[in-house]
Design brief:
This protein has strands at residues 18-22, 26-30, 40-46, 49-55. It has 62 residues and is mainly beta. The radius of gyration is 12 Å and the shape is globular. It has one domain.
Length: 62
């Protein structure tokens, strides 16, 4: 959806740290201690800051 920008889903391993690279310049590290506790991780951008949300509730973007 154009209003959402880029959205994607992926499966990650939750027993080691995960690094996500955005636009080949911004790295976001997800902590292996937090990953096993949650089913979903949402990453959003608000101006120049990224927000990471760990949750067990699925979101609908429609």
């Amino acid at each position: 959806m154009p209003t959402l920008g880029f959205t994607a889903a992926c499966i990650i391993f939750n027993n080691k740290d995960v690094t996500i690279t955005i636009d080949n310049k911004q790295n976001i590290k997800l902590n292996k201690d937090q990953l096993p506790k949650y089913k979903f991780i949402y990453i959003g951008k608000d101006k120049n800051h990224y927000k990471i949300e760990y949750t067990n509730e699925a979101k609908s973007f429609m």
